[in-house]
Amino acid sequence: MKLSVVIVNYKVKYFTFQLLDSLFKALKGVDSEVIVVDNNSEDDSVDYLKKNFPGVLYLPLSENVGFGKANNIAISKTNSDYVLLINPDTFVSEGLINKVLEFMDENPICGCCGVRLVDSLGNYLPESKRSFPSVKYSFFKLTGISSFLPNSKLFSGYSLGNLDKDAVNQVEILPGAFMMIRRKTLEKSGTFDERFFMYGEDIDLSFRLNNSGYKNYYLPYTLIHYKGESSRQNSKRYINSFYDAMQVFVNKYNDKVCAGIFIGWSINLLRQLSLLKVCFKKAVKKYLFFKNKNTLKILIPSEYENDKNIIDYFLLSYKNAKVEFAAYSNEYDLKCKLLNGSFTNAVCKADSYSEITEHIESSSGNISFSIYHRESGLIVSSNKCAIINN
Q: Of 5, 14, 56, nearest to 387 (Cα)?
């Protein structure tokens, strides 16, 4: 078998549904299997997904064992040439997986590939490619210095800002949201260290992959990532879990990594800076919400312009704003209307994930997109998922 795709689901069944829908379009012609591990979601995730995608292998767990261990359980069931680890709060365009597989087939030194992550508003995510973590780089990032010098090798070293995001690059660290790994590399490096319950395990694995005789590569192919939906990244719980993971990392590699890079007081200082930053961002977000509560202009496919389910969904979602609707007739018409610049939201049909990806990237953070799955009645947005036509 060529490829095994592993997804860990935890209380995000609607995002996982959309990912599976996109995967089966992208995997046509690829000798592959898809495995979903459910980390004891305590809801109807497995039944819901199994009903819609019966061809998937489901591994429901009786407890939440963490991200790394859940992936390891699935990996142990595979015997393919490559393993793709992918977050549930993503979706893939139709040609993405074939492009990555082709690169890895042509470059045997490549042990693991990541891709360009873009959030649901079209913003490039700097964590798509990273250097080995250090207190220095983390400080520049958390204090905002890196944002003023985004292309500096020194001040934006955390996210390798000096490397072109639109080019192939050899990197040290790849994000766990998308890791295409060569089987032979995994056999040398080992799988996830299960001491990392959540966060940091991708850094640890990238480090070991990079030191197993193979190289990690960043490829400029776009993957849409609803950043943080599977784990709210702007929360105190996330911050504390992340820096707890960094402490595990320090304890593990203290004798192998440059002395003094990670020490207890530095991690705690960065933890506090992160918590302050989260509080500040929440205050700004709240202020902007009340300041910009004007008219929302929403684009919907012409065939749905009289669909009461969609209309009611948006009217209820934005009770405190004036909502106006406009229709588009085809993808070209949508592209032209998006360039107009006056629209705030757009609804896309779940037909072509490549076209949706293109629309999101071209919006440059100005438009919120929702994807409507007509048959299932599911609508997926960055901040909300719902079944709207029960």
A: 14
- What's the length of the chain? 390
Residues facing residue 387 across a β-bridge: 378
CA distance 370 to 375: 15
CA 134 to chain centre: 23
The predicted-structure confidence for 329-366, as pLDDT tens digits, reads as follows: 999 999 999 887 789 899 999 999 999 999 999 987 77
How far apart, in whole angstroms, are the C-alpha atoms of residue 93 and residue 371? 14
pLDDT in tens, 285-318: 444 444 454 688 999 999 999 999 999 999 998 8
Cα-flanking dihedrals φ and ψ of residue 203, to 5°?
-65, -45
CB 126 within 8 A of CB 151: no
User: Which residues have CB under 8 Å from 389's CB, separation 6+?
Assistant: 309, 377
8 Å CB contact between 150 and 156: yes
Q: What is the pTM of this model?
A: 0.85
Kindly give, in sequence order, each residue whose CB lies less than 8 Å from that of residue 23, ignoring residues fewer than 6 positions away.
Answer: 5, 34, 92, 97
Q: Are 113 and 104 in contact (CB under 8 A)?
A: yes
DSSP-derived letter for residue 10 is: S
Q: Nearest CA to 59 among 42, 43, 77?
A: 77
**Measuring CA to CA, which residue among 358, 378, 382 is closest to residue 369?**
382
